[in-house]
Amino acid sequence: LLTLVFIGDGAPAGNYGYTNSGYSVYEEENERLTESLRTKVSAIKSLSIEIGTEVKNQNKMLSEMDNDFDSAGGLLGATMGRLRTLSRGSQTKLLCYMMLFSLFVFFVIYWIIKLR
Fold first, then answer.
1. Which of 5, 35, 41, 108 lies most in the core, judged by the most C-beta atoms within 10 Å?
2. Residue 8 has pLDDT above 90, yes or no
3. Residue 24, helix vs strand vs coil
């Protein structure tokens, strides 16, 4: 129990009118809880700093990936343009090239089989 004792009634001048038994128990518990809270706040602060650093690194990596995808998209667009140009050419010319290539492959395979 916390009992109030007036300074003029014989209590020592250093304890501000509280008896040592009740006040010191609450003060020690308060100090212990304060220290525990300080430790937890410090841990949360360091964790939030680490999270911030990780977020900055991830944003940098995402930015680099975005640039890489943009350049790959440009390259793919240029390739598609070339394919469109190739497909707009005369179909007979393309068909002739395919036939000549097929005949060439046929003769190479025939020649390989004939040599065995």
1. 5
2. no
3. helix
Q: Report the pLDDT value the prediction gives residue 52, as an integer from 0 to 100.
A: 96
d(CA 49, CA 60): 17
- What pLDDT is recorded for position 21? 59
Position of tokens 């930015």? 63
DSSP reduced 3-state for 4:
strand
R_g over Cα of the chain: 43
Cβ atoms 22, 1 nearer than 8 A: yes
Which DSSP state fits 16?
T
* Three-state secondary-structure class, residue 14: helix
Residues 45-85: tens digit of each pLDDT: 999 999 999 999 999 999 999 998 898 888 888 888 877 77
Question: For a pLDDT cut of 90, what percent of the chain falls above it?
Answer: 46
**Is the distance from CB of 2 to CB of 18 less than 8 angstroms?**
yes
**Residue 7 in contact with residue 13, Cβ under 8 Å?**
yes
